[in-house]
Every structure is written in structure tokens, then in C-alpha cells.
């Protein structure tokens, strides 16, 4: 095996500049080797070994805690529509973890392969945010906080009006939600500001998450060719906006005091882990203070992977906690098209972006050879 001996690895001055990482001086694999050799490098001490395992093993940990929900007493069948958003979230998270680990395992094959690996990686991060938005929309939807007396805690405990009055106040309701058994709280006379917030959430929340996912993928892919000095800051901050937008229902419930203590705790930890992971990714700690010492184990990207997974794990616990409180009852029943269909359309859009950037990279790398 080519990577069996540490002496077979390269230093940062021996690899193309685009393959070298800041403050990582050694442990680079030899480019242009076979698929099997890079596969075997997962078991060798290279500077990508930890990056691979921190997300590859995390996939199985996540799957265990995800499937744990179906072992609960009186849980619905696995393929019950109630779980469609949950399975969409599962697709997003597992796609992120598996693609990330594979990208780090095979990114040394060539410059073109390296770029494509990370283009796909950015796409799966975006897909994860949309998977989260679907879970939030159905399970942490502010409307799930309706009390048994007909009050709506997230709208300041305003009692619901009668059906007839609601129809008079919202003549377009039937067109917006013809299958609803009761009229959405946001169409009741609780103030124009709250009505606008409710309309945005019901009509634009998921589409906005999808649009941001596409824009963020475009920005991250562009950062590999432009603004190289600030690429880590750009990539970290670019995904901050989707986090804020996707977390809107949680922020709103926290503001209105409609969150349980356990859900609030999980969300707080989710945010904390994300913050810590961003600090490691931007500041390049600890290798910045001792270049060469953390080349194989303990460098910032490994910690970035660890803390992002801890964030995802607490998010999973938060979603499960919200689902437990619903007891199988949702204000808006999920459908196959509104969950898996959304994910499929999004993935097609992300694939188009990745393909476009991959063709550009291939053309750039091929151009000098033809001259």
C-alpha cells in the first residue's frame, strides 16, 4: 500500500498549492493514485484520516439515535406519513455525514476530483438545512402550541374566533387551505403584524429555506475559485443565514415562552456547538499556534467535524422531544410530495450547480494541456 509508511506522505511544499491547508505542514497523500489506495488510506495516519472517521463513525451514531424513536411504546409504523419530515431530515443529515467523509477520503486523487468532492460536500450541507426546515415546519410549527381551550400561545393566548367569523375575515382561506379542518390562527384578527409573520411561515418558510440552500451552495463553490484568503470565513458565515431562517419557529416559541424546558435546552446546546465549531473552522486552532504539531491528529477541521456533529445530535434530540409532545397529531398532515418531493427537487437543483462548477474546473485544468 502506497500510504503504509509515514515516509510515503508528502509535505505541504510537495503538493499543489490548492491541496495544501493553512498551518498543516505534512501528512499529505500522493496525488493521482488508485481508488483502492485512497480507500486504504483511511487506516493510515494521514492528515485526512481524522476528518474521515469523525463523520463516518458519526453516521452510525446518528442512525442509532434516529431509529431509537421507533422503539418507543405506541410509536406509529415506520412509514407512517407522520414520519415523512423526520425521514427527510434523516436523508439530509446522513447525506451530509457520508459525503463529507468520502470527500476527505478521496480528495487527493486529482485537483478536479478534489474540487468536485467539496462542491458535493457544500450541496449536502445545504440539503441538510432544508431537511431540518421540513422537520421544524411540521414538528416545531408554532401552530402545534394550540391549547385545548382554543387559545394560541404563540399569538399571545388570543382565543380563536368562530368559524363563521373567520370566513368573513378571510375570504381567501378556502383557496389557501381547502383541506384544513380548522382555520389557521394567522388568519384570525390578532393584528396585522402577527398575521404577516404567520403568512410568511405558512407560505414561504420552506421555499425560503430551499432558495437559501441553492444560494449558499453557489457562494461556497465560488469561494473555491475566488477570495481564497477569506474562504473559511465566507463558508462559515454563508451558512449562518440559513441557520437563522430555519430556526425561526424555535426562536419564536422561545420568545413566546411556548417551548418546553428540555426542548429549549437542546436548542441552546445546538447553537453552542455550532458557535464553537465555527470558531475552530475560522481561527484554525490549535495548528495556528503550533504548525506541524497537529498535522495528523487534533487539528481544527477534526474539531470542527466533532462539534458540528454534536450540534446535529442535540438538534435530533430536540426534534424527537417535539415529536413526543405531539403524540402523532399534526396541525398540517405531511404528504409525500411536500417532504420527499421537496428534497428531490432541491437535490436536482444542487446537482445542477455542482455539475456547472465541475465543468468549469475541468475546463480550466484541461486548458493548459491543450496549449
What does this structure look like?
This protein has 371 residues and is mainly α. Helices cover 61% and strands 1% of the residues. It contains 13 helices and two strands, in the order H-H-H-H-E-E-H-H-H-H-H-H-H-H-H. Strands 1-2 form a two-stranded antiparallel ribbon. A hairpin with a 5-residue loop joins strand 1 and strand 2. The longest helix has 35 residues. The protein is globular and about 60 Å long. It starts with 34 loop residues before the first helix and ends with a helix. The N terminus is likely disordered.
How would you spell out the order of helices and strands?
HHHHEEHHHHHHHHH
- Overall geometry: globular
Cα end-to-end separation: 36 Å
Helix percentage: 55-70%
Mean of the pLDDT scores? 83
Number of helices: 13
Brief summary:
Zn(2+) binds at residues 301, 305. The protein is mainly alpha-helical and 371 residues long.
Task: For this entry, give a set of tags.
single chain, mainly alpha, 61% helix, 1% strand, membrane, zinc, transmembrane, metal ion binding
Helix-strand layout with pairing:
Elements: H1 35-40, H2 49-67, H3 84-106, H4 111-139, E1 151-152, E2 158-159, H5 163-169, H6 173-176, H7 192-222, H8 231-238, H9 240-246, H10 248-256, H11 261-283, H12 300-326, H13 336-370
Antiparallel strand pairs: 1-2
